[in-house]
Amino acid sequence: MGDVVRSVTEYLLGFVQSIPTLLLQLFIFFASTFYFARDGDRIWEYMNYIIPDDRKHYFKTLLKEIDLVLKSIFFGHFVTAALTGIISGIGFWIMGYPYPLFLGTLTGFFQLMPIIGHWPTIVALALYDLVIGNFLRAAAVISLGVFLSLMDMYVRPKVAGKYADIHPLIFLLGFICGPLVLGLVGFIIGPLVLGVTYAAVVAYKKENQDKNPEKLIDTIDTGKKEGSN
Asked: Does the model's pTM come out above 0.85?
């Protein structure tokens, strides 16, 4: 028992000591986001000036794909997480849990994490109800978790697919590798970096298709002939 308490204490102390660094990372991230949003047109003018004429079409395609990817990330993941937090908070309030606003916010934050999703909060509340003997509410909160999972399976692909058809594995790697490299801020930056990389690959592919339409047609015809044989 003493080892467990010591380990928990060391973890909490380490977390408290990392708070200043975390706050600095968040400040840099949001400040950069603000200035990029405010001065985006001016930055594009500078880039347009230094980019060679024969590469401007590629960069325009790249910016278009990045815009679609960022919209897919935001609407497909952050909006879904916000919706999960709102619905779960209302559900917790109806079921009589204390601090439903905090619990709903926590559930929405967990929803951003792949695989884990909203279940940590749901499972913790269900175990609490089982311990105190409130089996009916435990079943109700588990049912709420199942409903949130079904909603996520339907809403997330529908919303994200309207902007960019990105494989879920890309976001999974972003959400896992980002925090390992950058800490808590990596939950945001990781998917963005991989999303922008994906957009660059898509833009490069479209650029080559636009430059070599005859080669693309020959490839398709060859594939059809091979399929018929």
From this structure: no
